[in-house]
Amino acid sequence: MSKQEMLKLIEKKRSELMEVVAKSGLNAAITIQLSQELDSLLNQYNEYMYQKTKRLSSQ
């Protein structure tokens, strides 16, 4: 998955989360689930960027 694709997924999930928070509140089960999904996407993105930086610095 490319960097741009990852960023699009993150933004889509963030938008979903904001909509659910507005409708259901911060403590709703769906809010927590979407928040965890966003966390996972952000962790994947950070790992991707770390690995990319690591490869570039070892050259």
Task: Report on the architecture of this protein.
It is a single chain. This protein has 59 residues and is mainly α. Helix content is 86%, strand content 0%. It has helices at 3-24, 29-57. The protein is elongated, with a radius of gyration of 14 Å. The model has no long low-confidence stretch (mean pLDDT 95).
Provide a short characterization of the protein structure.
By secondary structure, the protein is mainly alpha-helical.
Largest sheet, strands/sense/barrel:
none
Query: How much beta, percentage-wise?
Result: under 5%
Overall form = elongated
Distance between the termini: 23 Å
Question: Strands, helices and their partners?
Answer:
Layout: H1 3-24, H2 29-57
Which key features would you list for this structure?
single chain, mainly alpha, 2 helices
